[in-house]
Amino acid sequence: MIVLLPPSETKRDGGDQGAVLDWDRLSFPELTQPRQAVVSAVSELAGDTEAAQRALGISAKQLFEVERNRTLATAPVMPALERYTGVLFDGLDAATMTTDERSFAHETVVVHSALFGPIGAGDPIPAYRLSHNSKVPGLPLKKHWRVPASDALAGLGGLQLDLRSEAYAQLGAAGENSAYLRVVTAGADGKRVALSHFNKKSKGLFTRALVRAGIRHSTVDSLLEWANGAGFQLEHGAPGELDLVVENA
């Protein structure tokens, strides 16, 4: 089983001072060429601070993000699982993982980056700023990533649990045997309502529980049986989807 996660706009600083971005250390080597094209375009864009600010949709207080993009090739790297911060990754809490849990996460968790496409949780990456809707001149991200990212994910095979936002899912389709997970709550009338505030937190906690259990589910039925035994209310939703039902509190 593979768990597909969205990235986070916020990143942790620092990393291994003795290592920089190395294409050969990233998962999905077939994506090296499209990755290099995006990194080159983003680095070049960072040479014009005002243009980069507009393209990234950031404020004057976030101009450090432009510097991050300017130094992509020389900045220190750290595993993606540790690089990303924010609500989802706080719930995943990589810092407290055991050696076995971290190894399992590195083997089963894939983060879909706008800069690098799909990457493994253990892939060493620098801090950067690029979102699914960033306007990189001459390089529309959806068009650039859709085919190569979809092909890369299709090549994984097996069950893929897709926790990405719909926006990141548009950068590349999950494999044929996939289930899209939605975080929902039951409204007063009993109808399912998608959550926004607790969406990322719930996905992070659910992924952490999957990593802790260390089970490679091959079918949705196996996943459902485990989830409900582990204290989660996971149910079939719309065709091809699963509903993670949580309390809206």
UniProtKB/TrEMBL annotation:
It comes from the Bacteria. Pfam families: H2O2_YaaD. One of its GO terms (biological process) is response to hydroperoxide. One of its GO terms (cellular component) is cytosol. InterPro entries: YaaA. Coiled coil: none annotated. PANTHER family: PEROXIDE STRESS RESISTANCE PROTEIN YAAA, PEROXIDE STRESS RESPONSE PROTEIN YAAA. This is Peroxide stress protein YaaA.
